[in-house]
Structure formats: C-alpha cells, structure tokens
Design goal:
single chain; alpha/beta; 7-stranded mixed sheet; 4-stranded mixed sheet; 13 helices; disordered N terminus; binds 4'-deoxy-4'-aminopyridoxal-5'-phosphate
Length: 472
C-alpha cells in the first residue's frame, strides 16, 4: 500500500497498485513526499529537461530541490562515478583512507583558501547538520567547556528531517507532528530574518536604505544578544543559520551585513557559527562570511549520488589537530568513496567550466525578468533571491501582505499548473508567512542554464501563475 502524508483526519491509505497502474494519472491526491497518483512517471532526464513516459518533456527550473546543479545525465560525471565503482565500491572509513576522499578534501581546502580544513563526507543534508550539532558540543567538551550544549537558530528555517536537525529547525509544519520528540531544552529559536514581513521600511524587495538597514541590523543583533542572555552565554555551543533561507522562506537572502553581525555576536560570546548551506551553497548563491562549521549537500554532487558534507573551519580543526582529537561520530557510509568521487567530479566541472560566473550573470537576469514579469501582479507579494535561487511569495493582498488560507493550496496549484499545462517544473511550499501560513514557489535552475532558457522559464512560470489566479 502507498501511504500519503498525514491529512487532517490522519494518514490516508491508498489502494495497492500493480506495475500496470503506475502510469501518469489525473488524480489530485499527489504529495511531493510520497509516490502517489498524479505524479508523472519518469523515463529519463537529460540536460535541462525531464522526459516522462507520457507527454512532452518538462523544463527543469528547480533541479528537484536545488540539487541538479549541472543538469541531468552528464556523461563525464557518470564516467567518474562508474570508474570509481570499478576500482572499489565501498571501504569503511575505519579501515582505509581512500583517494577520492583525500582528493576531495584537498580540493575543498584549496578552494576555500584554507579556511575549511577538514571534511566529513555523508549522504544527506540532515546528516551534515546532525554532525555539526554533535561536533559543536564535542569541541567544547575538548576545550573544557562542557556546559555549552545549547543552540540558537531561527524561526522559519529548515535544517533537516531527523530529530536533531528538526529540533534546530524553525519550520512550523514539519515540526508539528513530532513536537513531543523535539528537545525544547537545547534549541532556542529567535525571529527569522525576513525583511519582507518585518517592520522595516522595505516594500516589495529586500533592499533597504542605509539608515533603515543599520537600524534593522541593530534590531536583529539585539534579538540574538537577548537569546544569549536568556540561555546564559556560557551555555551556547553554536548559532545555526541558513545564509539564504530555502524551503522555509523561499530563497530569502540576508541583507548586507546581517551574517557578519551575527558572527560578531557569536565571537563576542565564544560560540561557534554554523552555516547551513545545504540548499543555497556550493556556488548557487555566494556571500562573504566564513563560518566555523559549514553543512553542504544538494549541489555538492548535483544529485548524481546522495551526497553531503560537513566542512570544518580552522578553529575546530586546529584544536583537533593540536590535541589529536577524534570526533565521536561515524555513519557506516561516511566518507564513501563513490560519493566523494561524484562530488569531486561535479565540483571540478563547476570550476573548469567557469559556472560560478554563469550563476552570477543568469541569476541577475532571472531576478530581473521575474520582477519585470511578475512584480506588479496583484497576488505576488515578493520576488526575492540571489544567484540562481529565486522565490516568489503569493499573497491575498499586496497592501496588507495577508497570506492565503493554507487549505486553498495556492502554491501547489501553481506547481501543478506549471508542470501540467506549461511544462516547467518548479519547487513549491507553504509556511513562508510564519506559523504554517503563506505560499511560495522556488526557481533554482542548473548552473549551466542559458539566457534563452532563463527567459523561457520566466514566461512559462508567469503563465502558470496568471492562469491559477485567473481561475481562483
Ligand atoms: N538544510 C537545508 C537548508 C535544507 O534545505 C535541507 C533539505 N531541503 C536540509 C538541511 C536537509 O537535507 P536532506 O533533505 O538532504 O536531509
């Protein structure tokens, strides 16, 4: 039986299917987290397109969840992965060092100019965040500060699906069913950094005037300071932040100076700064603040294999080196050679092909075209983003910024219209207005996207949005 996500009346059980039944159907029961009716069945994916078993190809404007940074089906990456598999498919990190992990580690250290000195290779973003939480605590035990066991994160954030990473997340809807299991003691949430919905002088964009920006930054600094005071500064191990908030706030970038201000507060109180760059990192957005620990995934290996990593900065790696400390942590598949080979091949391709330059150029174009095409739509509250990471937030009323009722499923309607009628895949979500309210879509194409395809994405997405609101 296929089990859907819980509905209001509890979990829905759908009838058992035969292989013959698993084809595209017109039913609307689909939920992105499960295999259900209504989702197309995939035959292949190549470049910027998905090819379902039935119907025309679908333009990929989101790479799944910002994963496919190189597009689909690249032979060079497949070759690198299979070459590694032909040498050896698995080796336990407890028994062997492996060349792919060593090379990846060297590449990461070099490409960060030595800022990141150690890497733990894993398979999912949640694992990387779990490792960041645990390493923060263990680091302070090594330092003789075992009372540092608390974390500060933000509301309207998402850091993962496992219990530790969900505890640090401020995502209302994803936490809600598991509330009793999420530690309230060690995870403290401060308000999100959401210039669109906070009381600043901002209008429909995240740009602020210099005066209002400095006032805003002082206000955000005071909120973080208050959390340190509340918990006792000497009990805080780390502050965990997404530099550009993904699934919870639809590509919300922090205003200039925000991350540096948060880092300064951490430094003042001796706590670590953990940046969750699982969705926005590995070249998709880019900013200038170096954290103590950095979690990456998605674009790390571009979806060719399940891959993530925890990168460790000089402060923590230095102490480990000096004192010969070993992190008490290890998944069976940690430092998997095939994962490392895939990530290395993807990162070398990004570098070799100068794709970060393309991210900048096409990202600016994407943002400009989205704003031109949708900025005046009565139900588009905000268009925001950075690099190739753009979100569109829908509102009932642009003046009051009132969100739609969650039950209307506006974001899901847009996603479905986009894929079914306009043949473009976007990522959708709810909760960007806080407390489970608010609808958005996210547009996050591969770094290899062309200007022509950027324009086509915007036209198709705008068509879907206009169509959905015409019907509503
Ligand atoms: N952090 C962020 C910012 C994410 O966006 C996600 C996944 N969307 C995660 C952590 C968890 O990653 P995963 O789903 O690979 O466990």
């Amino acid at each position: 039986q296929f089990l859907s996500s819980p509905s209001k009346s509890g979990s829905r059980i759908l009838p058992r299917k035969t292989e013959h039944d698993i084809t595209e159907s017109s039913s609307d029961l689909g939920h992105p987290q499960t295999v259900l009716d209504g989702l197309p069945v995939l035959k292949k994916a190549k470049g910027h397109y998905w090819y379902p078993t039935k119907g025309p190809k679908i333009l990929d404007a989101c790479g799944g969840a910002a994963v496919a940074c190189l597009g689909h089906g690249r032979r060079d990456i497949v070759k690198a992965v299979t070459a590694q598999m032909e040498s050896y498919t698995y080796a336990s990190y407890a028994h062997f060092q492996t060349t792919p992990v060593q090379e990846l580690s060297d590449w990461l250290t070099k490409s960060t100019g030595g800022q990141m000195q150690k890497v733990y290779v894993m398979c999912s973003g949640s694992e990387a965040i779990e490792a960041a939480l645990k390493l923060s605590v263990e680091y302070f035990r090594w330092k003789g500060e075992p009372e540092r066991v608390n974390f500060i994160a933000r509301l309207d954030s998402y850091h993962g699906t496992t219990l530790g990473s969900l505890s640090v997340s401020g995502h209302h809807t994803r936490r809600e069913p598991f509330h009793p299991l999420l530690s309230p003691t060690h995870f403290h949430h401060i308000p999100a950094c959401n210039p669109y919905r906070e009381d600043t002088t901002t209008t429909t964009t995240t740009t602020t005037s210099p005066t209002s920006l400095s006032t805003y930054l002082s206000h955000k600094t005071a909120q973080l300071e208050a959390a340190f005071t509340h918990l006792g500064p000497h009990t805080v191990a780390a502050v965990v932040l997404e530099p550009v908030v993904g699934a919870a706030l639809a590509c919300m970038p922090a205003p200039a100076g925000y991350l540096a201000a948060m880092k300064a507060v951490c430094a003042r109180h001796g706590a670590l700064l953990v940046l969750d760059e699982v969705m926005c990192g590995m070249g998709r957005t880019g900013w200038g603040v170096v954290p103590d620990l950095q979690a990456v995934a998605k674009g790390f290996a571009g979806g060719y294999v399940p891959a993530s990593a925890l990168l460790v900065g000089g402060k923590v790696a230095g102490l480990m080196e000096r004192e010969g400390r070993v992190f008490t942590h290890g998944h069976t598949y940690q430092n998997h050679p095939v994962v490392a080979a895939a990530a290395l091949a993807v990162q070398r391709a990004v570098e070799r092909e100068g794709l970060l330059g393309n991210v900048r150029v096409q990202g600016e174009l994407l943002g400009r075209l989205l704003r031109e095409r949708l900025g005046a739509h009565p139900n588009v509250g905000d268009v925001r983003g950075r690099g190739l990471f753009w979100g569109v937030e829908f509102v009932k009323d642009r003046g009051t910024k009132e969100p739609f009722e969650p039950g209307l499923g506006v974001a899901e309607r847009v996603q479905k219209a986009a894929v079914r009628e306009f043949k473009v895949l976007v990522y959708h979500g709810q909760g960007c207005a806080g407390g489970g309210r608010g609808d958005h879509i996210m547009i996050m194409p591969a770094y290899t996207i062309s200007a022509k395809l950027v324009a086509e994405i915007v036209e198709r997405v705008a068509g879907a949005i206009e169509e959905v609101f015409r019907r509503l």
